[in-house]
Design a protein that fits this description.
alpha+beta; Heat Shock Protein 90; five-stranded mixed sheet; elongated
Length: 275
């Protein structure tokens, strides 16, 4: 819009300079009319730009909401069918039907968590508090251990030294770490191992999640953080998890990076300032 206003100002300057070169003076009434027309043109341009921009934002929001509703409906439908089958007693709770119910419920939880995190980021309603990293990792480990067990994988959680604290929004940090763990479980082969470890210095705290996804293609590391970017054959979800996770970590003063281990896997690192 600044360029539009600047260009109309250029038109005004060009006309007045041309009038001076041709010795054709512009009267006060003519100049007043000319300026009014320029003002009207600028106002119309601003109005049209605002209208198209608001329409674009509305269309984007509608599409995003539609995708979310579609994913939620699919996961909920699968969960309901699985539950009804289990309720009839024709299959056991240790079979594939129960596994489908578990996957569907985890998908629902992931979609809801991502949506909540996105709303909090866009509304800038952060709740910063002092968080014990040791206690935080213990809480995350409980749910992650059940996830690893359901997927027949090993979860290795390194002990955290006491007295290590960070000042963060607990929910955003939990969402980011949980998303990294879920991605690690998603792309690690059955029977593989996912590691969660924490290290600290006098000024920084590093939370790392290591998977066994097999590594990335050259130059593909940063592409993982693009919105709607998905890798591998498993296309469940919207591909927003890593993008939202990075935004969440940045919102609480940290950084989220990925390091490729060719042929083995990836290490996702959340780097936070230590209290």
């Amino acid at each position: 819009m600044a360029q539009v206003v600047h260009d109309y100002g250029g038109v005004c300057q060009a006309v007045t300079e041309l009038a001076g070169e041709m010795n054709a003076p512009i009267t006060a009434d003519e100049f007043h009319t000319f300026n009014r027309l320029l003002d009207d043109a600028i106002a119309q341009a601003v109005t049209e730009y605002t209208r198209t921009r608001e329409q674009s934002i509305a269309d984007e929001g509608t599409e995003r909401l539609g995708n979310l509703a579609h994913e939620l409906r699919n996961a909920l439908g699968a969960a309901m069918l699985s539950f009804q089958t289990l309720k009839m007693g024709s299959v056991g709770v240790g079979g594939s039907t129960a596994a489908l119910l578990g996957r569907s419920l985890r998908t629902l939880a992931t979609l809801i968590d991502s949506s909540v995190a996105r709303v909090r980021l866009e509304s800038a309603s952060l709740m910063i508090e002092k968080v014990s990293v040791r206690q935080f990792i213990e809480e995350v480990e409980v749910a992650a251990s059940m996830e690893a067990s359901a997927r027949e994988m090993a979860l290795a959680v390194a002990p955290v030294l006491p007295g290590v604290d960070v000042s963060v929004d607990r929910q955003l940090l939990a969402g980011a770490v949980t998303n990294l763990l879920q991605n690690a479980f998603k792309f690690t082969r059955r029977g593989g191992r996912v590691s969660l470890r924490t290290s600290s210095t006098a000024s920084r705290v590093l939370i790392e999640v290591e998977d066994e996804c097999g590594g990335l293609a050259p130059g593909k590391a940063e592409e993982l953080f693009r919105p709607f970017e998905q890798r591998g054959a498993d296309r469940t979800g919207l591909g927003l998890g890593l993008s939202i996770s990075r935004r969440s970590v940045k919102a609480i003063g940290g950084d989220l990076r990925v390091r490729d281990m060719p042929g083995t896997g990836c290490v996702f690192s959340i780097d936070l300032p230590r209290v």
